[in-house]
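testing teh design pipeline on a random one, pls ignore if ur not involved
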């Protein structure tokens, strides 16, 4: 292993002793993990210093390929930012996001959200206020708990086959799904190495049929599991780029991973996957209003920016969490219970800046792919940084 790569892995593992969940996955050589776990955690200030030294060493290195060195530099910048914050340094929210994830977060004007509401007014059936109609329609799409695993399996089989045909999958890869509770997220991919993933689906709140295909695509095919397995085979095993054997929260690696995962369903099933999804769910007796779901998806995409605005309200403006819950409930047209879950994610120390990975990551990846599957193949196979994608990305709505 390159000494610089070894230092990078040890830095990430050492920071993981300070931040629960920061090391999303590690399947590399065991020795760095043993060293990082030995003794007391290294103080955050010392880790920040080591990260600075590693950045200088990367700048001076001439042995690593330019793209690989650029990728490592972006990653280490994110790790150094986390260490600086842990050491007590004050870093503003927008600066933190930019240093960690490689893009600067932005708000959108509430007028953008109001325009999305107006479009939804025209597609949702029934009388009464929009928020009540939207919540009633959406919650009616809840998947019965006893049918959830069968629905996941059916969608997963189809998405896996489509991913295999379009992009190829390594021999022996496997995903296992489980249902969990008491988590701040809706789904999570635990990559175990050796081409295996364990995907947890959170059932604290009813899982909606309108979100289920996206969730499976995001976590498994052609999303996180597909990216992990292809990079394990192509980069870790094939090229011995062992830095890819560790996946770290708070780095640009996450922004591109979440962006491509959010794009995955559209890539393998097309811009309007609803008829195909209905073919899986309706035979199981699961309610799925495909026609309205399609219209809501088209009209409501801008509402994804509610999460970005909510993060600014919490972390830049200092708004009380209860007020932010009200804001999310109002503009996302959701129940207070779901809004509280969303805000809890933004308040979690590990995940507070992470929402940018979904909002900006999706925008970057969709513009970069531009309907060309070969570009999506690059996202799940190559080392890229947000700057590699940014020239093709449109500005956010205004």
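output:
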């Amino acid at each position: 292993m390159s000494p610089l790569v070894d230092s990078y892995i040890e830095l990430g593992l050492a920071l993981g002793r300070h931040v629960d969940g920061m090391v999303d996955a590690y399947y590399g050589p065991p020795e760095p993990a043993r060293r990082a776990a030995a003794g007391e955690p290294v103080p955050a200030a010392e880790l920040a210093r080591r990260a600075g030294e590693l950045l200088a060493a990367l700048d001076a290195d001439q042995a690593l390929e330019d793209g690989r060195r650029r990728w490592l530099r972006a990653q280490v910048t994110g790790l150094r930012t986390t260490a600086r914050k842990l050491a007590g340094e004050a870093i503003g929210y927008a600066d933190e996001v930019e240093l960690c994830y490689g893009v600067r977060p932005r708000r959108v004007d509430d007028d953008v959200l109001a325009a999305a509401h107006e479009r939804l007014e025209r597609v949702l059936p029934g009388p009464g206020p929009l928020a009540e109609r939207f919540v009633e329609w959406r919650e009616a799409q809840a998947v019965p708990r006893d049918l959830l695993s069968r629905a996941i399996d059916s969608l997963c089989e189809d998405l896996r086959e489509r991913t295999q045909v379009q992009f190829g999958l390594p021999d022996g890869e496997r995903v296992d799904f489980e249902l969990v509770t008491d988590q701040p997220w809706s789904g999570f991919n635990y990559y175990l190495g050796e081409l295996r993933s364990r995907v947890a689906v959170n059932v604290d709140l009813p899982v909606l049929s309108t979100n289920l295909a996206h969730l499976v695509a995001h976590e498994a095919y052609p999303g996180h599991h597909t990216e992990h397995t292809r990079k394990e085979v192509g980069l870790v095993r094939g090229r011995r780029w062992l830095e890819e054997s560790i996946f770290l929260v708070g780095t640009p690696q996450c922004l591109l991973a979440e962006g491509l995962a959010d794009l995955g369903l559209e890539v393998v099933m097309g811009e309007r996957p609803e008829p195909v999804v209905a073919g899986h769910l309706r035979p199981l007796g699961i309610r799925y209003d495909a026609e309205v779901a399609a219209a809501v998806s088209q009209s409501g995409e801008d509402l994804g920016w509610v999460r970005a605005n909510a993060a600014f309200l919490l972390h830049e403006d200092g708004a009380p969490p209860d007020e932010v819950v009200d804001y999310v409930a109002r503009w996302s047209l959701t129940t207070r219970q779901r809004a509280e879950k969303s805000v809890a994610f933004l308040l979690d120390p590990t995940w507070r800046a992470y929402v940018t990975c979904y909002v900006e990551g999706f925008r970057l990846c969709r513009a970069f792919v531009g309907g060309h599957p070969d570009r999506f193949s690059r996202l799940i196979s190559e080392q890229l940084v947000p700057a590699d994608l940014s020239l093709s990305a449109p500005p956010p709505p205004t």
